[in-house]
């Protein structure tokens, strides 16, 4: 089974994240890493292949540093990587992202399963998997807390959990599946995996090789625009209430004033 896992290089959530003058995310002024939510998709792909046959291809798009996301996945055990690198991509929204990824998946070819994380930790929109499936004209099975591929590699079955109930969804392969952070526990790269990753192939493609018009991607083509961004104000000191028999009422009023009760 040949599996493509879409991964993203994102700013470290623990860092001091800021915006560029054009109100896009500053990706140069903060350290980046493989989106933590994508690690679950990489792990699930590896488990599927290790239980049978096939290979795992990692797919990312972004600046030079996005190769870091591929590196981590290859160290975990993925077999090869594809990096879509083109200056015109900068500022792309989800619509453009799904277009580029779809064209890259087509170019990779002979794909049985496309896996993604629940969302990216910088955008947190959870819409790219559905858009990608639509562009590839494949079934989409999203928010998988459990995933099973049948022995013949013809269908995929997932369990989707929410607050009230769980449901089982089945689709024929090939398909696009997004997984949640409940599905597994991603492995840490071993020393052997780190060394082996240095020899694994990584191809770099630009938009021309994918047949994508630069006018269809980038900030100018985005369907939405951030018009203003400002830093969150520093946390103020808390209000101290001395309980002289009216502490409960003061707490209730505090919550009511903030529409929390």
Tell me what you see in this structure:
By secondary structure, the protein is an alpha/beta fold. It has a single domain, classed as Rossmann fold. It has 7 helices and 12 strands. The protein has helices at 36-50, 67-76, 94-108, 128-136, 191-197, 207-210, 247-257, and strands spanning 2-6, 9-11, 32-34, 55-61, 80-84, 113-116, 140-144, 146-149, 155-161, 166-172, 175-179, 202-205. A 7-stranded parallel beta sheet has the order 7-11-6-1-4-5-12, with helices on both faces. Strands 8-9-10 form a 3-stranded antiparallel beta sheet, with no helix packed on it. A two-stranded antiparallel sheet has the order 2-3. Strand 9 and strand 10 (166-172) form a beta hairpin. Helix 3 crosses helix 4. The longest helix is centred in the N-terminal third of the chain and has 15 residues, at 36-50. It is globular, with a radius of gyration of 21 Å. The mean pLDDT is 91.
Strand order of the largest sheet: 7-11-6-1-4-5-12
Strand residues, percent: 15-25%
Helix content: 25-40%
- Please provide the count of β strands: 12
Question: Any idea what the radius of gyration is?
Answer: 21 Å
CATH class: Alpha Beta
User: Average pLDDT, to the nearest integer?
Assistant: 91
**Large-scale geometry:** globular
| Class by alpha and beta content | alpha/beta
Q: Count every helix, treating DSSP H or I runs of 4 or more residues as helices.
A: 7
Unreliable stretches (pLDDT < 50, length at least 5) are none
| Main β-sheet description | 7 strands, parallel
Number of structurally distinct domains? 1
């Amino acid at each position: 089974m040949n599996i493509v896992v879409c991964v993203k290089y994102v700013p470290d959530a623990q860092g001091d994240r800021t915006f560029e003058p054009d109100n896009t995310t500053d990706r140069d002024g903060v350290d980046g890493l493989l989106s933590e939510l994508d690690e679950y998709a990489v792990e699930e792909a590896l488990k599927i292949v290790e239980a049978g046959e096939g290979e795992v291809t990692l797919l990312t798009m972004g600046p030079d540093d996005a190769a870091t996301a591929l590196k981590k996945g290859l160290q975990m055990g993925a077999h090869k990587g594809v990096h879509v690198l083109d200056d015109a991509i900068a500022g792309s929204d989800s619509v453009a992202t799904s277009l580029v990824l779809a064209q890259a998946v087509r170019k990779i070819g002979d794909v049985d399963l496309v896996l993604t994380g629940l969302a990216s930790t910088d955008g947190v929109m959870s819409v790219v998997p559905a858009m990608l499936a639509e562009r590839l004209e494949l079934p989409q099975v999203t928010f998988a807390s459990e995933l099973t591929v049948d022995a013949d590699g013809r269908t995929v079955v997932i369990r989707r959990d929410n607050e009230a109930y769980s449901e089982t969804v089945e689709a024929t392969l090939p398909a696009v599946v997004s997984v949640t952070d409940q599905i597994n526990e991603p492995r840490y790269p071993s020393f052997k995996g780190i060394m082996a990753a240095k020899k694994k192939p990584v191809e770099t493609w630009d938009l021309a090789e994918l047949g994508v018009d630069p006018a269809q991607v980038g900030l100018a083509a985005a369907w939405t625009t951030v018009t203003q961004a400002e830093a969150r104000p520093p946390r103020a000191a808390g209000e101290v209430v001395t309980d002289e028999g009216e502490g409960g009422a003061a707490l209730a009023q505090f919550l009511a004033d903030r529409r929390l009760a």
